[in-house]
Specification:
Strand order of the largest sheet: 1-34-33-30
Structural class: mainly beta
Helix content: under 10%
């Protein structure tokens, strides 16, 4: 396991480059995102260590990051001031563009992965999702319908103009808890905190048709705030949600009365969920219980592995899409994930990562969990 530490910066999101298998970006914030500025870290994993290639500061916390699917140097982050920042790693001076329409924190950003689209979706605490063309200064459309804050917005990897979003509950009274002496708005931080107040409405998973600007389906997926959702990479009808109730639920859009599977094991709120790009029923989750867990909902037991290498909330998680010179047996013929690593770097200089995560403990971790190593060995 390799790691990188950035003092006084608490990790909120991490994503591996879709172009360069050893490159990743991490969105961070000072003071746990409650006050202060934010920093975007662009990191490079090498054989012996992890190097900081670039760092970009912003005047508010940064809560999510996504790489461009059309330009290997471009990234987008979402900030606590309600703006999206577009960065170019070849331009160290600052953001090349700032998009500002949201009226509250932007907690989610995602770049479309389908061909023919060059769009970004953002989700905000102002209860809206917005779709952006990075070449324009104004949003393409606004998706309205959630009654609570949006924590997650994700493009379908299968269907153009299709977005999933997950929301928290409507807070009728202001709720606070204390974390290391800081007064913090609740909004899904912990399960079972000693707080006062009342909830009302929402807590749904929604699927949107961006062209029509309308919600096609709304699923009351949890009786708690939903902090994350993700699409299965092999089935356009399957998504997973993770919530403050400590559970993950796998949903089939063709039948939403009950989840396909419910995954239990976390002891505090689940902050982020990710489907594996290589195995249809394998996914990962990270939590405020300081753990990262790996699951296969087609097996019994469904829990494959628990990683306990952080000392604070784990907020960011991603799989690396790149495995050199390998086609996984579970892949369909239309999905080509083979990457020739030699076009990016020498084999002796760079090591391809499998999983990356980031935490409020100021670290980014890069590793291959034993369960994934075993899956690959069995497949080969």
């Amino acid at each position: 396991m390799k790691g990188f530490r950035c003092p006084a910066r608490h990790g909120y999101a991490v994503e591996v480059s879709p172009f360069l298998p050893s490159r990743l970006a991490c969105a961070t914030a000072q003071y746990y995102g409650i006050a202060g500025c934010g920093t975007l870290l662009v990191l490079e994993q090498r054989e012996a260590d992890v190097l900081l290639l670039r760092s970009f500061d912003w005047n508010d916390g940064l809560f999510d990051v996504t790489w461009s699917e059309s330009n290997e140097h471009v990234l987008v982050t979402g900030g606590g001031d309600g703006s999206l920042q577009i960065w170019d790693t070849a331009n160290p001076q600052g953001p090349i563009q700032v998009l500002k329409e949201h009226t509250q924190e932007v907690y989610a950003v995602d770049w479309s992965q389908t061909r023919g689209e060059n769009l970004v979706v953002s989700g905000s605490w102002d209860h809206t999702a917005k779709v952006w063309d990075p070449e324009r200064s104004q949003s393409v459309c606004t998706l309205q319908g959630h009654e609570g804050v949006l924590y997650s917005t994700v493009w379908s990897p299968h269907m153009p103009s299709c977005v999933a979003s997950a929301s928290g509950m409507v807070v009728r009274d202001e709720l606070y808890l204390k974390h290391e002496g800081l007064e913090t708005p609740l909004q899904g931080f912990l399960k079972g905190a000693d707080v006062a107040g009342s909830w009302a409405g929402d807590g749904t998973l929604r699927v949107w048709d961006v062209k029509a600007g309308s919600c096609r389906i709304a699923i009351p997926a949890h009786k708690a705030e939903i902090l994350s959702c993700d699409w299965c990479k092999y089935d356009q009808n399957v998504l997973v949600t993770g919530a403050v109730d400590c559970s993950l639920c796998v949903w089939d859009l063709r039948s939403v009365r009950q989840p396909v599977a419910q995954l239990l094991g976390h002891t505090y709120a689940i902050r982020r969920v990710k489907f594996s790009p290589f195995y249809k029923t394998v996914l990962a989750s990270c939590s405020y219980d300081f753990t990262v867990r790996f699951w296969d909902y087609s097996m019994s037991p469904m829990l494959l592995d628990t990683m306990e290498h952080h000392s604070e909330f784990v907020c960011g998680l991603d799989f690396n899409l790149h495995i050199p010179n390998q086609v996984n047996p579970q892949q369909t013929t239309t999905e080509q994930w083979v990457v020739d690593n030699s076009q990016y770097c020498s084999e002796t200089d760079v090591v391809v990562v499998r999983v990356v995560d980031c935490s409020w403990d100021e670290t980014v971790k890069i590793y291959t969990p034993p369960c994934l190593a075993a899956l690959q060995e069995a497949a080969s």
